[in-house]
Design goal:
Chain A has a domain of about 300 residues: Metal-dependent hydrolases (TIM Barrel, Alpha-Beta Barrel), CATH 3.20.20. In chain A, about 30% of the residues lie in helices and about 20% in strands. Chain A contains 14 helices and 19 strands. In chain A, α3 runs parallel beside α4, α5 crosses α8 and α8 packs parallel to α9. Chain B is an alpha/beta fold. A five-stranded parallel beta sheet of chain B has the order 7-6-5-8-9, covered by helices on one side. A four-stranded parallel beta sheet of chain B has the order 2-1-3-4, with helices on both faces. Chain B is globular and about 55 Å long. The chains are: A alpha/beta, B alpha/beta.
Chain lengths: ~475, ~325
């Protein structure tokens, strides 16, 4: 992208992306005391060489100013030296973080490329400050064989992006036969999940966990008892009653979580429960962890941002599974993030065609896009509204999900991979889905004012997204 | 003039709206008792009847109501339409709207479908029933029927009995009856009752015998086997012993109390054969057929109010 920017601005100069990048005047949370005493970051060959103090840029000049400054005092926000060896980004006191990891994404390729493909998903991720993601296997065909795992890895490698494919737990997500865990793992499957579906047969789940333990494989579990959810389309509560929409009791999720905690305890399998939605789920996971059971969990931004009252006008973009629940559940999820019971925030990015959402609530498909709002929406809710410590928050969208899926997370310190997001934490904007990089526009956050703007995303020391 | 442009639910109607509708219904009710039952107030107007879900009484009622007002009617039914060719609901509605109609009357099996459709088209819409959500014209005709028997609505004791969970009639009636100051009790079993009913400011009873002696209006809901995806209620025998109106219970009721049912009645389930057989004898008490007649008058009033006010507004603008 960097080379493209330069070549577009200066078509005559055939400038290659410089090997070094110097980010001047940047606030590193936890390291620099405040924005006025910001530091510099020196990146060489994709590695952070220095992230303390001030980098001496003598000899490098802004010969080719590419963008005007953010404000009048700070000219030449991005520039490049005449010898082409270094680029300089004057961040003007903006904040940086290790770029984010989204451990729950639907990329729809292969099979539903009209909704999303790997490349469009990567672009949307970069726009959201995300440089690593775990994609779910409910594609067409299902990612239940090593060829498809390799296909995804190959596509991601072409775009220099970290995709960690989750392979199916059961063949074709049929909930009946276990896939070739060993072969899939060797091909690069980072986890196993039947996401969107849930194995109903408890004995089979027991065998799955034993087998996962044997292969030291991570299970990412979508918890749903179909007998509770089959007749419903939203949280069972005051609003489902009022709107005449069948309700899904939180028991749908809780019963299966209770079962899987027991199975995890028995088998010792590494279990991650994804997109938990209810208060009781948080409580059960908390006590399971206190008992030493190997279990982690995540929540989506929409489950902490909204509750079922937001569906009172039958907003199909917020029709998701599990459904957004009542205010008490919403509060418990936020508290769970604060206390550390919930390890991570994951978007459950689920693109859908307009025709699947522009219909009656009952007929509408489940899911919201979320890559571009993962940071903004959860930052707005947690840090702005709930005063969560910013460093703690960054763990939830970067360090923790990376650790769970086995991704070497970036850090802003010398020797680390230069995977960095530069953020304007004070900027407040209405999220307008018409500007999305995703192929789909079914965002639950469309039209909502959110804090936090991703100014720049850096992957392996290269600027891969820039939006001043 | 009504405060709303569409009749989608009873919640958004103000008490003034309801009173205006009741007054107009009384006028049209009088028209219906004449030899010549037509008022050509809406000559030249076209009313579109769109039934995505099967119906006989509501559909016919609306059609007759529109015709009595002199309007032309166009009927659409989902079977045999382009919906079978994969046309989306909204494209179907827009296609029919393009044929220049003035009002759409819509029934759909999905809750919220009428909210959705009305947000996409620019003619007034009357909800003729959407899934388990609302059936506002039923609630209004029920209210009018109650008004014929009692001097005032305030503090009337109403018991709504049976399958509340799957009933759009219950949802629209509870809201309208509470709005008019009535004292509403729901009589039902856990698997036939939605959650959080306590938020609707109603009383709850578990057996018809708990309320039968003091009830002014006994409203029996249809046991909707077609709307229950799974049957959790054990049996008709069990239902009869807790919720059915039989002769013995009927005799315990207040002298001036009335029995209502949105129809069609499942004889032997909600109301016993014996009571139904004596319908003519107790014509002042059993209002089931009167409800149907009043349905016509209420629908005439609504079509008239929506289209006439539309016209007034247009004249004002020009």
């Amino acid at each position: 992208m960097f080379t493209e920017i330069i070549n577009k601005k200066f078509p005559a100069k055939d400038i290659k992306a410089p090997e070094s990048l110097i980010i001047k005047n940047i606030f590193i949370p936890g390291k620099t005391p405040n924005e006025d005493l910001a530091a510099d970051i020196l990146i060489e060959k994709g590695i952070i060489r220095s992230a303390e103090g001030i980098v001496d840029t003598c000899g490098i000049e802004f010969d080719y100013p590419l963008y005007p400054g953010i404000n009048s005092e700070k000219k030449h926000v991005l520039g490049i030296s005449s010898n082409g060896k270094a680029a300089i980004l004057n961040a003007g006191g903006l904040t940086c973080s290790a770029s984010f990891t989204d451990m729950h994404v639907h990329l729809r390729e292969p099979g539903d490329e009209e909704e999303e493909c790997i490349n469009s998903g990567i672009n949307a991720a970069l726009k959201g400050g995300i440089t690593a993601m775990c994609c779910m296997p409910n594609t067409k065909p299902v990612i239940d064989n090593d060829c498809l795992v390799s296909f995804i890895k190959m596509k991601a490698a072409k775009s220099d992006f970290n995709i960690y494919p989750a392979a199916a737990i059961t063949k074709g997500l049929n909930g009946l036969e276990i896939t070739d865990f060993g072969v899939l793992k060797n091909a690069g499957a980072a986890a196993f999940s039947d996401d969107g579906k849930c194995v109903q047969d408890s004995k089979l789940m027991y065998e799955i966990m034993r087998y996962a333990k044997y292969h030291e494989a991570l299970l990412i579990l979508h918890e749903e008892d179909y007998s509770f959810s089959a007749e419903g389309a939203m949280h069972e509560g005051y609003y489902s009653t009022k709107l005449g929409i069948g309700g899904i009791s939180p028991l749908s999720e809780e019963i299966i979580i209770a079962r899987d905690i027991m199975l995890a305890e028995k088998t010792g399998a590494k279990v991650h429960i994804t997109h938990i939605s209810s208060k009781k789920s948080v409580e059960m996971i908390k006590s399971a962890r206190e008992a030493g059971i190997n279990i982690t969990c995540d929540v989506t931004p929409h489950h902490i941002f909204f509750n079922d009252s937001a569906l009172k006008n039958y907003n199909t973009n917020l029709k998701v599974n599990p459904p957004v629940r009542g205010p008490e559940d919403q509060e418990a999820l936020i508290a769970g993030l604060k206390s550390g019971v919930i390890d991570a925030i994951a978007s459950d990015h689920a693109p859908h065609l307009d025709s699947e959402k522009n219909t009656t609530f009952i007929k509408a498909a489940n899911g919201s896009t979320g890559l571009e709002t993962l940071f903004k929406a959860s930052y707005t809710k947690l840090c702005i509204e709930e005063n969560l410590n910013f460093l703690h928050f960054l763990k939830l969208i970067s360090t923790n999900p990376s650790r769970i899926i086995g991704h070497k997370a970036g850090q802003i310190s010398s020797g680390s991979n230069a995977d960095i997001a530069i953020l304007d934490t004070k900027k407040q904007e209405i999220f307008d889905v018409r500007n999305t990089y995703s192929k789909s526009s079914n965002s639950a956050f469309d039209g909502i004012k959110l804090y936090g703007k991703i100014i720049c995303t850096i992957k392996n020391g290269k600027i891969v997204f820039l939006d001043f | 003039m009504l405060s709303v442009k569409n009749i989608i639910d009873t919640e958004n109607l103000t008490v003034a709206d309801v009173n205006l509708i009741m007054e107009n219904t009384a006028t049209f009710s009088e028209v219906l008792s004449r030899d010549f039952k037509k008022v050509p107030a809406l000559r030249g107007k076209t009313v579109l009847n769109m039934f995505f879900e099967s119906s006989t009484r509501t559909k016919n009622s609306f059609e007759i109501a529109a015709k009595r007002l002199g309007a032309d009617t166009v009927n659409f039914s989902a079977s045999g339409s382009s919906l079978n060719k994969g046309e989306s609901i909204i494209d179907t509605v827009k296609t029919l709207q393009s044929m220049i109609v003035d009002l759409a009357i819509i029934r759909h099996s999905d809750s919220g479908a009428i909210n959705y459709i009305s947000s996409k088209i620019n003619i007034p819409v009357i909800n003729a029933g959407d899934g388990k959500h609302q059936h506002p014209t039923q609630a209004l005709l029920d209210l009018f029927t109650i008004g014929e028997s009692f001097a005032e609505f305030k503090n009337l004791k109403v018991a709504i009995v049976g399958d509340i969970l799957n009933s759009r009639v219950a949802r629209s009636n509870i809201c309208l009856f509470k709005k008019m100051g009535m004292d509403v009790t729901l009589v039902s079993a856990p698997m036939l009752m939605p959650v959080n009913m306590d938020c609707f400011n109603v009383k709850i009873a578990s057996c018809i015998d708990d309320v039968i002696e003091e009830t002014d209006v006994l409203y029996m809901l249809r046991m909707q086997f077609e709307r229950q995806e799974k049957k959790y209620y054990p049996s008709i025998r069990e239902y009869n012993s807790f919720f059915s109106l039989d002769k013995k219970r009927f005799m315990k009721m207040k002298e001036k109390s009335i029995i209502m049912h949105p129809g069609p009645v499942n004889r032997g389930i909600e109301i016993s054969e014996e009571v139904m057989e004596n319908e003519d004898e107790f014509i002042e008490r059993i209002k089931i057929n009167r409800q149907v007649t009043n349905g016509l008058a209420v629908r005439m009033a609504l079509i008239y109010l929506l289209l006439a006010s539309d016209q007034l507004e247009k004249e004002y603008v020009h």
